[in-house]
Amino acid sequence: MKKIVGSGFVGMGGLWKEKLCQVVIVNVYSSCNASQKRRLWEYLKAEKANSNVEMWCLIGDFNCEKGGRDSGCRGGREKERVQLVPRRDGGG
Predict the structure, then answer these.
(1) Structure pTM?
(2) Residue 92 pLDDT more than 50?
(3) CB atoms within 10 A of CB 65
């Protein structure tokens, strides 16, 4: 079982017995700071790209809302765009 830990996230990989496939689940608590958030996502994208596991599940507090506002981050925070990626199974 692989474990990945970094600033703003913790993840673990293992076998999904019902589907008989490998999966990585990552719990994210993203910073309000845009540059730290970019580093977090770049790191996770690189981890996924270097992994032989196709199924990744990212859950948690991304500190960003679809409308560009987040009541959890106070102060002069720049607006961000959120890219929503559809599920492979066609669900919402």
Answers:
(1) 0.69
(2) no
(3) 13
